Structures are given as C-alpha cells and as structure tokens.
Amino acid sequence: MAARSGRTMLTDMDGSGDNVFVIATVTKTWDLASHKPYQKGFLTDPSKSDDEERYFVVYDPDVRLEEGKTYKLNGIDYAFDRYEEIQLMLSEGAYVEEWEPKK
After folding, report:
1. Domain of 21, in residue numbers
2. Is 11 buried (19+), middle (13-18) or exposed (0-12) by CB count in 10 A?
3. At a CB cut-off of 8 Å and minimum separation 6, what does 22 contact?
4. 48 in any annotated domain
5. Which superkingdom is the protein from (predicted)?
6. Which residues contact 80 (CB under 8 A, 6 or more apart)?
7. Using 50, 70 and 90 to split pLDDT, how confident is the model at 36?
8. CA angle, 63 as apex, 42 and 84 as ends, to 5°?
9. Rounded distance, CA 19 to CA 36, Å?
10. How many structural domains are present in the chain?
C-alpha cells in the first residue's frame, strides 16, 4: 500500500489499496445493522457526473457522515470484489473533517 500525494479525485480511484485524500460530498447514507462496517453510502465530487457516485464504508465507530455535507477524507482506495465496487474505506482513526468551500 502506498500513499498518493495531493488530492485524489473519485474518478481516479481504482481499488489500488493506496492511502488517498479526497474532498467529496455525501449523497446517500445507510447505517448498517452490523458490527463492522458501521455505515455505507455514496460520495460525489466535481470529477463525477450527476448520476455517478462512489461508495464509501465506515469502519470507525466514532465516525458518521451526513448526507449533503462535504468532507475532507483520508482513507483507503479499496476494491470490494464481491460486489465489483470501488470504495473509499474509512478505517479506525481515519481523518474526517467537515469542509465548506470558500465562497
């Protein structure tokens, strides 16, 4: 696993296992009735079209993302082969900060 430098756009994620930094907006969330992961949902950023989204999964019990909010996120570019999904995995201790763009 490598750490990519700078910001990664969601369209550049390919399931490499790299540590990535993204700025993205949460469009949909599901709280899961399982021990881990705790939450799953969709992210979008300017690289994705209106009907394209990227999955995220939360494995940190202290992290919950809210729909409609934009976040700075540091996680793992993960390929979930079972469902052929590319996901941003937020493990325990992942960096998550709500972010509002300058106007």
Report:
1. 3-98
2. middle
3. 7, 8, 9, 10, 13, 43, 45, 72, 73, 75, 88
4. yes
5. Archaea
6. 55, 57, 86, 87
7. confident
8. 35
9. 20
10. 1
